[in-house]
Amino acid sequence: AVRTGGHWVGEGQKLWTSQAMYADMIFCLVRTDPTARPQQSGISFLLIPMNLPGITVRPIRSIDEGESLCEVFFDAVRVPADALVGEVGRGWDYARYLLARERVQTAEVPRNTFYLSRLRELAAVAPAGGSPPIDDPVFAAAIDRAEIDLLALEAAVTHALAAGDASALTPSALKIVGAELMQRQLALQVEALGARAQVFHPPDAPLAQGQAGGHATGVVAEFLFRRAATIYGGSTEIQKNIIARLLLQGETSAGLARGCASASAYGGAGGTDRHAGPTPGDEALTPTEIEVLVD
After folding, report:
1. Sequence-ordered alpha helix ranges (H) in 164-286
2. Is the pLDDT of residue 214 over 80?
């Protein structure tokens, strides 16, 4: 974006913008100083009305047949100068602040709680001529394991919020654990459906009156869509890089071991049950806990 009189003139494209077709405003990180070093210092934060001339929104059809994601094009858009948030060149600082809070949010405790409730509901339904999945002790144990991991995740999020934990480690770790737990629970839902999962119901498609399988509506669509949970908000690979870098620099996080590492102690988010034993306190992360987070 280039400052011209009382406006910023913006050119470019913003991809994967959720629900942009319904939005009145959009915030963008725009490069206002291409010569700045480090490069982050040349980025500013604009809050842009979506009804300005030159803005085009194009929905993207996703794997679940929904259109919640969009790409937004800016063609010589004249944005009023007072749309600048904060100071010129400080946009990256503001974005990092927002991302840290977004990643705590993307631990998705409420959504994971709903998924667990629906998982138990689906597991209690018997297929024609068979027994309900919940009668399978291995499947029942997988549900219990998901519940233990959810309790640990909720405790970690609550502790982080209550303690005002400002460590950059915390949101990255919570985001990884919450996203992977969502995917695991949705995979179990699809498994619980068995052959019924072969019938795909788009997210908002109503079933005909009396049509069988009403309890399964949207399950497969949600499973497909949430494959992106480990990508949006910062991919799992990026989060692990952040965690590893900060740990190697000596960073610690109050309460992080208590929540996330205890999940793996029960065979949870770390994907293995080898991290058994008592969970350390808040004083520091041990090598075992580092392995839980980044392995």
Report:
1. 169-193, 219-225, 236-248, 256, 262-265
2. no
**Please, are residues 132 and 250 in contact by the beta-carbon 8 Å criterion?**
no
Q: How many helices (H) and strands (E) does the chain have?
A: 9, 6
Which tokens go with 7? 């406006």
Question: Amino acid identity, residue 264?
Answer: S
Decide: helix, strand or coil at residue 210. coil
Q: What three-state secondary structure class fits 272? A: coil
pLDDT (0 to 100) of residue 167 = 78
Q: Which residues contact 244 (CB under 8 A, 6 or more apart)?
A: 294
Distance in Å from the first CA to the final CA of the chain: 40
In this model, does residue 79 exceed pLDDT 90? yes
Q: Which two tokens stand for residue 211?
A: 């049509």
DSSP state of 7: E
Quote the tokens at residue 59: 């929905």
* Contact of 36 with 90, CB cutoff 8 Å: no
**What does the pLDDT read at residue 275?**
33
Asked if 163 and 96 count as a contact pair (C-beta separation under 8 A), the reply is: no
* Residue 83 per-residue DSSP state: G
- If you write DSSP's letter for every residue of 20-64 in order, what string do you get? GGG-SEEEEEEES-TT-SSGGGGEEEEEEETTSTTEEEEEE--TT
Are residues 267 and 273 in contact, defined by beta-carbon separation less than 8 angstroms? yes
pLDDT of 27 over the 60 cut: yes
192, 220 in Cβ contact below 8 A?
A: no
Separation of alpha carbons 90 and 36, rounded Å? 12
Distance CA 206, CA 218 (A): 10
Beta strand 55-60 pairing with 25-31? unpaired
